[in-house]
């Protein structure tokens, strides 16, 4: 098939790395739509991705010679659909429905007018892809990898680099995820009724997992991975457009926008973590804060009781509203954490509440809450528990106990910059030599 056989192809030559950069940019923008559209046809997201990859290979082969098409997304979709028909024929699975699909494709408009995108249908397809890639039948790690691959257009190598795991591990997760979805006959659809809330929670969890790994890396030599934060923000904004009536979607978007606004202030000159209360708030991104407030307002206007992400966004907004750390309304934050603990109880929420109570009502009351979590199985090995206890103990003047807690936190963290900060904090509390 020549370039002129594809929709909207241009004959002007465009060689060199510039075209490859354009292809990469187009793929990042269009991958989700193309895979989603093909998945609607073949009802298998694994096969849909293979077909989309075939179209990408065709672009890499043809566009350096022919030039980038006027409508590159339609070009890729057309190639993918034709590959779908070819694949179906090769596998000889020509039931009546597939034969009809093949005839329809062959009799459609000429390539230059082929498959003009229908925005509403594209959005529906992408939303179906989101819910399928984030299906609870998959492990959290598999959902993250598949989402970044299908919706983010990231390569296996890029995902592996972002999460500091071998490329083969990521590739295996993606392959197994596709196989699991196929074997479980997971439908390519947006769930309705009682199952929708649970499935939406899974989708939001995946996006927030991606964001958190970028916001405070769990391992490695970097404290912040801005690329993952950006990707999660992009996915959150897409979700907000696709599901405008879901307050928790807007809540998550608001939470990530406000947290991301602190990125420039969260690291020092050597890349070391800077605690929230020590950050230069003049470096916070006011545009992202404004976007976060707007998303939070959209969530509240829907009129439903606040869910976990809306509540967390409201807490983030309290910090963003304070011109300086000492102006923070800790009483309001502690109150919001109390509500959050009722709506979505978890040991981590209780630990955060201990911090807020410690700031609002004194370190002794905060330490009481933190100490109550000492035997919590979910926090065993969680470095922030001894870190929080160390901070509260230091404020109470119990310096030796605080030093021990910071050393314990340093042993538990897998992030190198964070470990150094914790050890420095422990050293600063050591008794001076006689």
Name some characteristics of this structure:
434 residues; mainly alpha; 4 domains; 2 strands; single chain; Arc Repressor Mutant, subunit A; 19 helices
- Side-by-side strand order of the widest sheet: 1-2
Strand content: under 5%
Poorly predicted tracts of residues:
1-16, 109-118
Instruction: Give the fraction of residues assigned to helices.
Output: 55-70%
**CA-atom Rg in angstroms:** 25 Å
Rounded mean pLDDT is 85
Structural class: mainly alpha
Could you give a short account of the major beta sheet? 2 strands, parallel
Task: Tally the helices.
Answer: 19
Number of domains: 4
The tally of strands reads 2
* Oligomeric form: single chain
Describe the global form.
Answer: elongated
Strand and helix order: HHHHHHHHHEHHHHHHHHHEH
| Head-to-tail CA distance between termini | 83 Å
Keywords: DNA-binding, Sigma factor, Transcription, Transcription regulation
Protein name: RNA polymerase sigma factor
Pfam family, one: Sigma70_r2
Family: Belongs to the sigma-70 factor family. ECF subfamily.
């Amino acid at each position: 098939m020549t370039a002129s056989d594809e929709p909207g192809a241009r004959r002007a030559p465009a060689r060199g790395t510039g075209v490859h950069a354009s292809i990469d940019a187009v793929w990042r923008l269009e991958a989700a739509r193309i895979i989603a559209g093909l998945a609607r046809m073949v009802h298998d997201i694994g096969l849909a991705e293979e077909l989309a990859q075939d179209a990408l290979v065709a672009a890499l082969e043809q566009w350096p010679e022919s030039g980038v098409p006027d409508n590159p997304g339609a070009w890729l979709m057309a190639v993918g659909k034709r590959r779908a028909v070819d694949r179906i024929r090769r596998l000889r699975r020509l039931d009546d429905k597939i034969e009809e699909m093949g005839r329809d494709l062959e009799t459609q408009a000429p390539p230059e007018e082929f498959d003009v995108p229908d925005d509403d249908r594209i959005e529906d397809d992408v939303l179906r892809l989101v819910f399928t890639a984030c299906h609870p039948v998959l492990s959290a790690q598999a959902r993250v990898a598949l989402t970044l691959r299908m919706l983010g257009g990231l390569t296996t190598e890029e995902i592996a680099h972002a999460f500091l795991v071998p490329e083969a591990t990521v590739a295996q997760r993606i392959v197994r995820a596709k196989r699991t979805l196929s074997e479980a006959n997971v439908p390519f659809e947006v769930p309705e009724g009682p199952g929708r809330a649970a499935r939406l929670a899974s989708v939001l969890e995946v996006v927030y997992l991606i964001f958190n790994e970028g916001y405070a890396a769990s391992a490695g030599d970097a404290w912040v991975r801005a690329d993952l934060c950006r990707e999660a923000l992009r996915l959150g904004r897409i979700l907000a457009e696709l599901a405008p009536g879901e307050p928790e979607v807007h809540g998550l978007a608001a939470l990530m926008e406000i947290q991301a606004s602190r990125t420039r202030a969260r690291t020092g000159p050597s890349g070391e973590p800077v605690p929230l209360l020590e950050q230069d708030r003049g470096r916070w991104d006011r545009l992202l804060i404004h976007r976060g407030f707007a998303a939070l307002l959209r969530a509240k206007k829907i009129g439903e009781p606040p869910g976990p992400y809306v509540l967390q966004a409201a807490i983030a907004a309290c910090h963003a509203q304070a011109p300086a750390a000492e102006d923070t309304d800790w009483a309001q934050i502690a109150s919001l954490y109390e509500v959050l603990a009722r709506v979505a109880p978890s040991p981590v929420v209780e630990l955060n509440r201990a911090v807020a109570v410690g700031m609002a009502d004194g370190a002794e009351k905060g330490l009481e809450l933190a100490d109550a979590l000492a035997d919590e199985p979910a926090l065993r090995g969680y470095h922030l528990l001894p870190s929080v206890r160390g901070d509260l103990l230091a404020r109470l003047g119990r310096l030796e106990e605080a030093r021990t807690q910071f050393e314990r936190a340093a042993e538990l963290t897998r992030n190198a910059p964070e470990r150094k900060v914790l050890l420095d904090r422990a050293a600063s509390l050591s008794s001076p030599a006689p």
